[in-house]
Amino acid sequence: MASRIKAARQEREWSQTRLIGELERVAARRGVTLPSRETLKSRVSRWENNHAKPDDFYRQLLREALGLDDRELGFEQEHDSSVVPAVDQLLAVLNASPAPDGTLLDALRTQTEAIRLQDRQYGAGALLEQMRGHVANIEQHLTHAVFESSRKPLAWQLADAAALAGWQALDLSALDQAWRFFETASAAAQQAGDKALFGFARMEQAHVLAELTKPTAAAQLAQSVWDQVQGDVQPSICCC
């Protein structure tokens, strides 16, 4: 059976050469030199045919290149036959997850702002993978929050963090990841009821379309989003 690495590559309509190029780009951002393309092609083929598994170093590169976590890439250890049924797992998580309070929300906000500050001073670089984990963490909190009084502020935190992650991915020309992060941000902003943040995320998706050399679609999306949200954007921003 083909590996999840191959499935993720094919979902993006990437060739093996494209995947290798993306791995080289991630490595370059980290200041690391990879082996020759012939060696990498052999390794990728072995990973995709389940003849070998990438080590921790290459797992990091694959996570960043493909924008997926260890579970999605099939890196997590397989469990034995004593796996807890999914419904029991859900009950356990819900029972163990207290309602989010101000302390948690402040901690999440502080983490987002800390990454934002580093991004402004040093650039996105290796921050994207850290941001991906932060976004996934907020998503988990939101998934297991029961009441709207908890879900709405968590949704806003998710929208803000995912929008920053999308901006970082866009800055690194990881356009497929940028699109997905902005999609997460726009959906979360809608759930939070923040039309301005929703508009920002959707406008950034128009930016992605422009980077993909689809200027007509980008312009149409930007105009439709602006028509939808302009009444909810502060005048000072409208005039910029």
List keywords for this structure.
mainly alpha, 0% strand, Serine Threonine Protein Phosphatase 5, Tetratricopeptide repeat, 2 domains, disordered C terminus, 240 residues
Describe this structure in words.
It is a single chain. With 240 residues, the chain is an all-alpha fold. It folds into two domains: 4-66, no CATH class; 86-238, Serine Threonine Protein Phosphatase 5, Tetratricopeptide repeat, CATH 1.25.40. The protein is 72% helix and 0% strand. It has helices at residues 4-11, 16-29, 37-48, 56-66, 86-96, 102-122, 127-143, 148-171, 175-192, 195-211, 215-229, 235-238. Helix 2 crosses helix 4 (56-66), helix 8 (148-171) runs parallel beside helix 10 (195-211) and helix 9 (175-192) packs antiparallel against helix 10. The longest helix is centred in the middle third of the chain and has 24 residues, at 148-171. The chain starts with a helix and ends with a helix.
Compile the SSE list and pairings.
Blueprint lengths: L3 H8 L4 H14 L7 H12 L7 H11 L19 H11 L5 H21 L4 H17 L4 H24 L3 H18 L2 H17 L3 H15 L5 H4 L2
Helix pairs in contact: 2-4, 6-7, 6-8, 7-8, 8-9, 8-10, 9-10, 10-11
The third-level CATH topology of the largest domain is Serine Threonine Protein Phosphatase 5, Tetratricopeptide repeat
Radius of gyration equals 20 Å
- Helix amount: over 70%
What distance lies between the first and last C-alpha atoms, to the nearest angstrom? Answer: 54 Å
Mean pLDDT: 85
Largest sheet: none
What's the number of structural domains? 2
Query: Number of helical segments?
Result: 12
Strand content is under 5%
The best one-word shape is: globular
Helix and strand pattern: HHHHHHHHHHHH
- Class from secondary-structure proportions: mainly alpha
Tell me the total number of β-strands.
0
CATH class of the largest domain: Mainly Alpha
Parts with pLDDT < 50 across at least 5 consecutive residues: 78-82, 236-240
Q: From the coordinates shown, what is the CATH architecture of the largest domain?
A: Alpha Horseshoe
